[in-house]
Amino acid sequence: MRALLADVSVTPDFSGLPPNVLHGLQHLTNNAAAVLMLISGLGIVVSLIMLVLASWTSNPQLSDRAKGGLVVSIGAMALLYIGVAVANYSGHLFQ
Can you tell me the distance from the alpha carbon of 89 to that of 79, in angstroms, rounded to the nearest whole number? Predict the structure, then answer.
């Protein structure tokens, strides 16, 4: 079984793509990651503002909602970092 798995080799062939398409795909992924990071950062800022307002008004419901939003935003940012790291790692495997 191990020998069968060792025989499998996958190497993508990017030579068939025009250089501008390959360059455009790289820019698209970089821009998409940047936009998602900005949205997640905005979610963190809004959640922190809500947390401060909840503290000033002593509103436990708003505080709970802000904490949930903070967890979701940080989780989204962590998933994005993990996804970028995995993509970079797998991209270097095929070079």
Answer: 15
Give per-residue pLDDT as tens, 31-83: 888 888 899 999 999 999 999 999 999 999 999 999 999 999 999 999 988 88
**DSSP string for residues in 7-68:** T------GGGS-HHHHHHHHHHHHHHHHHHHHHHHHHHHHHHHHHHHHHHHT-HHHHHHHHH
Q: How many whole angstroms separate alpha carbon 43 and alpha carbon 24? A: 29
Which residue in the block uniquely carries the two structure tokens 């936009």? 35
Structure tokens of 5?
Answer: 């798995």
